[in-house]
Amino acid sequence: MASVWAKSIANLPVLSVICLLLLCLPPGGGQKKKENLLSEKVDQMMEWSSRRSVVRMNGDKFRRFVKAPPRNYSVIVMFTALQPQRQCSVCRQANEEYQVLANSWRYSSAFSNKLFFTVVDYDEGADVFQQLNMNSAPTFMHFPAKGKPKRADTFDLQRIGFASEQLAKWIADRTDVQIRVFRPPNYSGTIALALLVSLVGGLLYLRRNNLEFIYNKTGWAMAALCVVFAMTSGQMWNHIRGPPYAHKNPQNGQVSYIHGSSQAQFVAESHIILLLNAAITMGMVLLNEAATSKGDVGKRRIICLVGLGLVVFFFSFLLSIFRSKYHGYPYSFLIK
């Protein structure tokens, strides 16, 4: 017992030194380290953003600056496949709109370290795609400053399109950061209009002594049909929403020209609808010609059969596309 007391007394100076050291250590050492790490990450992101509006990231950078805490800033990430061998035309179109949006934010007066734009290319970060179970590109995601991304933090590209204005509206909903989109001046429309006016003016000048063609009903009818075909095929919707031309599945390389939802469409789809409507209209014109003309009966019969074939076949095709988009539609004709 005496030896035990002796050892305890001998250890008292050591315990006193340890307690004294603990009392002398500055409080919040772990918190200070966390703040330093956060400051380094923010400074690094600001440095990259000063060089280019969209920061390119590989797997390591993504995990360190986007996924790993601490982080007090939001990150918009575009997952894409821009390499030529990927043949992703939609990715290139979306990247152009994304660059416009990022530049608008970078050079605005409201620019701060609360929001950054980044991109992860499949060929530079395939492990990130696998980690997120992502099998299509392009895809836009928002990684909030706190917490994990929710369902609404993935941009609905197929329904809304990838126009810069639509992306800016989505970012405002997710981060409360308002971005006013500034597009570089594009004079192609003005030049095209000037050329068209010059062409029409030159044609009228050359035909100034014979302007009977202005009263040509067939010409005006064709022009009116072109406008109707453009409007009924969804060209105005394309202009407003900016959808992709088509969609290529990166897994099997299959290209889809018809969107599977009734709430969206591809540009190629509107072109297909335009051609189908034109073919049906041509069939109706031939049927009318066969019924009203007074030519050879055999020739009229051939025209009638051709017109009827155009109407039946292409209307069946148009109805099948309608069925594929409006799931549950019960009617079909020839083509299912």
Automatic annotation (TrEMBL):
The chain crosses the membrane at residues 187-206, 218-237, 272-290, 302-322. It comes from the Eukaryota. It is a multi-pass membrane protein. It is found in: Endoplasmic reticulum membrane. One of its GO terms (biological process) is magnesium ion transport. Keywords: Disulfide bond, Endoplasmic reticulum, Magnesium, Membrane, Signal, Transmembrane, Transmembrane helix, Transport. Pathway: Protein modification; protein glycosylation. Residues 1-30 form the signal peptide. CDD domains: TRX_family. GO terms for cellular component: oligosaccharyltransferase complex. The keyword Heme does not apply. Belongs to the OST3/OST6 family. PANTHER family: DOLICHYL-DIPHOSPHOOLIGOSACCHARIDE--PROTEIN GLYCOSYLTRANSFERASE-RELATED, TUMOR SUPPRESSOR CANDIDATE 3. This is Tumor suppressor candidate 3.
